[in-house]
Amino acid sequence: MDKYFIIDFDSTLTRVEAMDLLASISLQGLPQKAAAEARIKELTDLGMNGEISFRDSLKERLLLLEAKESHLPPLIELLKKQVSISFQRNKEFFKQYAETIFVISNGFKEYITPIVTELGIKEDHIYANELLFDDNGKVIGFSEDNPLSKDGGKAEVIRKLDLDGDIYVIGDGHNDYEIKAAGLANKFYAFTENVSREKVMKKADHIAPSLEEVLFENKIMSAFSYPKNRIKVLLLENVHPIGVDLLEKEGFTVEEYPAGLDEEELAEKIKGVSILGIRSKTQVTSKVLENADRLMAIGAFCIGTNQIDLEAAQERGVAVFNAPFSNTRSVVELAIGEIIMLTRNIFDKAVLMHQGNWDKSASGSKEIRGKKLGIIGYGNIGAQLSVVAESIGLDVYYYDLEEKLALGNATKLDSLKELLQTADIISLHVDGRPENKNVIGEAEFKLMKDGVIFINLSRGHVVDIPALKSNIESGKIKGCAVDVFPEEPKSNKDPFESELKGLPNTILSPHIGGSTEEAQENIGNFVPNRIMEYINTGTTTNSVNFPNLTLPRLQNAHRLIHIHKNVPGIIAKINQLFAKHEINIAGQYLKTNEKIGYVITDIDKAYSKDLIKELRAIDHTIKFRVLY
Ligand SMILES: NC(=O)c1ccc[n+]([C@@H]2O[C@H](COP(=O)([O-])OP(=O)(O)OC[C@H]3O[C@@H](n4cnc5c(N)ncnc54)[C@H](O)[C@@H]3O)[C@@H](O)[C@H]2O)c1
Ligand SMILES: O=C(O)CC[C@@H](O)C(=O)O
């Protein structure tokens, strides 16, 4: 049985309403332009929603237009650039199915024909209205004999076509739905790539955010192996709008949630989600991952990834990406600011001022020049702090578990003990690995100098809070800044509880070390791009739990992505299958880590479904997907 596709033109095959464009050309320079354009838009929407008769809407719109024949060539040029993105991607479909694709539109043939024939649609498969011109080339109306100039016209055209097969209508308007309502179509797809009309969507058999969705539903090969709109993205904790926008523009279906979710809530919400975006609050535990039936990637829109069970994610073939240096500078600037504020007792003095007390004295206030800054954890933030601190006169010492290059004149110390005994100011920048729990506790505070300044902008659990509190109260710690806490509120609406509230010369901030507009914008750009690279090409550069592979762009081939447990012999098994199916390998890329193997194979276009089944069935396969 043949499948016929009836496609609407305005806002479906093109991203715009052609009449709106014609209006902006024909009314150019006329005083009534703005008012006429607004009314044309209004009439289009009323017609599309079925709220006024189509013929009335068309008549009134044409009258407002002041259009001439000479306006058509520039209109056609503009429309050529406005073909819907997913239609542009799927030119192959229009070529292959030319015999069964029809464009039926209430617009005008004069501009529709040049656009759609370029896509490969046959000229005699275009049904649309026709303009009437006077002798001077002015548009004076339309051919009223044409059924498409009146309500129910599309149904009438299809009835006359008498197509023998299944009929699928793709359109954004009520008049497209009417074909189905008249019993003349098997399915009506509400096409929402360009506009979403609530009323039309409600009546649709299926919502198609892109042409790929229609093709996928009908098992027709399309530009993508899987429609992007079926990739569900869940973004928690107020991810920057740039990130949301990038993922939406890619065609994914994005759901946002302003706060973090607890384990139970997320374990429920994660079902059906392909990409999860979080920041530092949300714990992605193995229990959550057990329920993650479709999860491909997690984006940590921050630096820290200790909130994610990276090993469990890896074992389930879920790649995790973060933004390793997008907010580094912001944290460093806050640390520098706090070092100065605490050394000068500004915080306490400001509180007194707000209470009406004038305490002008130099006692206990010091310059930072020449003071010894001890940095624990000389990673990206620690090292950057070292450079900036040195440039304003601090004498920098650092301790790291790993061998790190000393920047500038910084002095590397061989033990934490030595650092704690040396520094006047201690700033903590270790990562949040579980072994770092209470890395600074009573014993460590004891080793510090009396009157030390202590700053923690790393992770809350790395400091023993009761020990910190008693050392501030005793005066051992003269000034303290804490930005991160073992327990943090899930959202801005939840209360903040901590033993550190109300202590002297203690700056508490709500985990905003990386919360600058610049940093959030950087992160919003960085993380979605890494995820999209992974989804679209398999590239895992910058993944924190997957072997890092940077892959070339896929050209005229299929890319098979196989993630498996790292046990001997898997590659041999994969390649035996290619040999058995006489598949030519265009390129193969492999990287392993302790736990998993990541193999990408580019093959010629043709392959059998059996090959895919057999590849999936190889023992120890974790995940498998095909890209093209
Ligand atoms: N407050 C905020 O808003 C904010 C913003 C960004 C990053 N962070 C946190 O800051 C910390 C540092 O970030 P980064 O980008 O520099 O990370 P990083 O991974 O580049 O550096 C961490 C360094 O700490 C070292 N280290 C780990 N444990 C240690 C230990 N016990 N003793 C000594 N050294 C140890 C590591 O070897 C590494 O060099 C992370 O915990 C991150 O989550 C907080
Ligand atoms: O913005 C956040 O939630 C986390 C910021 C910071 O702790 C990070 O890890 O980058």
Textual characterization of the structure:
This protein has 628 residues and is of the alpha/beta class. It has 4 domains: 2-217, 3-Layer(aba) Sandwich (Rossmann fold), CATH 3.40.50.1000; 231-321, NAD(P)-binding Rossmann-like Domain (Rossmann fold, 3-Layer(aba) Sandwich); 328-515, Rossmann fold, CATH 3.40.50; 547-626, 2-Layer Sandwich (Alpha-Beta Plaits), CATH 3.30.70. 36% of the residues lie in helices and 19% in strands. The chain contains 25 helices and 24 strands. It has a 7-stranded parallel sheet, sandwiched between helices. Helix 2 packs antiparallel against helix 3 (33-48), helix 5 (72-80) packs parallel to helix 8 and helix 13 packs parallel to helix 23. The longest helix is centred in the C-terminal third of the chain and has 21 residues, at 517-537. It is elongated, with a radius of gyration of 32 Å. Residues 303-304, 327-328, 331, 376-382, 399-402, 429-432, 436, 439, 457-459, 483-484, 511, 513-514 line the site of nicotinamide-adenine-dinucleotide (NAD).
